[in-house]
Amino acid sequence: MHNLSFSCSIFTRILEQPLKQFKHACFLQCHEIQDSISTMQSFVPEFEENTFTVGCWEQKEVISRDGQMKLHAQIFFASIDQRSEHVAGESACAVLVALVADWLKVNQLLLPIKCEFDSLIRDGSSEWTTLCENKDYMKRFPDKHFDLETVLQAKICQVSIVPEKSFVGFFIPGEPESEDFDFLHGAMSFDSIWEEISHSASELHMASEPLVYIVSWNDHFFVLKVEKDAYYIIDTLGERLHEGCNQAYILKFDRSTKIEKLNKKENKASKPQPLNVAVEINDSEENAVDESFMVTPNESNDGREGMICRGKESCKEYIKSFLAAIPIRELQVDVKKGLKASMPVHHRLQIEFHYTHQVTNDTRTNKCCFVNNGSFLMQL
Predict the structure, then answer these.
(1) H or E stretch including 60?
(2) How many domains, in total, are found in the chain?
(3) Do 90 and 309 touch, CB atoms closer than 8 A?
(4) N or C: which end of the chain has fewer CB within 10 A?
(5) Residue 17 within any structural domain of the chain
(6) How high does pLDDT run on average in the chain?
(7) What whole-number distance in Å separates Cα of residue 14 and Cα of residue 44?
(8) To which H or E segment does residue 317 belong?
(9) pTM above 0.85, yes or no
(10) CB of 152 within 8 A of CB of 97?
(11) Could you write out the DSSP letters of every residue in 229-282?
């Protein structure tokens, strides 16, 4: 019996020894893993302030330049725009829209976050600066305001224009009686163009690749992204939104968007403003605005004359009544007075929607063309 107990004791020790070694090995391994995690954490890069920002949509109100309408919409802001001091891309809009369109075609169902939006503006301005060093370009564009065809031929991005899906049309003045407007007879109107775009949007599926247009109007370019349930205007020049704005922005038009007509009292108060006035709903100090234009949450709607439009198609009314209304009225006044401007009448009314396509190889063809319309050429 004694020998049996002694044997069992030895056997137990033999079993315990590997178990202790196993526990010790596990203990050391655990500490090694913890040390590794700590070491890995010490190498995680820390982003400096404002180098990585996501941004957010902000609910805003914007009063039209003539003070007759107010837009309620969501706006997404970049930190900078093309005129910012460290960007210095004042006339870089053609290059910038090309890069933005390229980004949208690559990322299809996405929109850039704030730091990506900032990077697009910086990169585009840098590319524009490089183009400005080309002597041949400077001979053709001494003001450094390149046309879209030149930018695309420079191959700064993998995007091209599809002429057969692009549109060139005109804003039609309310009373085009002067001979100066004869060229408008039979020409495609902005309203007709929008009908085509709206129809194309209605045929999109939720997972369909959005349509991306580069829009040219009044010597400026911006991007229009078309989805089934929303339109987006992407502009790298803050002043286009309202006077004093120094941030590029994305303006969203969906079912929550609305445009209303202001009454005479509000109209009179807004008239002195030479440009659009952004009015903010929230009370954020970061985006504070002139309190004289603040709309309080308790303000009654009884003073307004009524809703003009609601939903994503408000985008059409925004382009007509917020972007184009004042220039068109100024043109009508000039024509009635017989004033001859340096810019031709047709150019002041012309708007172009360039349908973009993503090029997947290095072989690129010139997608730009011109259509002869009587005495002048219209660029597609």
Answers:
(1) strand 57-63
(2) 1
(3) no
(4) N
(5) no
(6) 78
(7) 46
(8) helix 314-318
(9) no
(10) no
(11) S-EEEEES-GGGTSTT--S-EEEEESTT-EEEE--HHHHHHHTT-SS-EEEESS
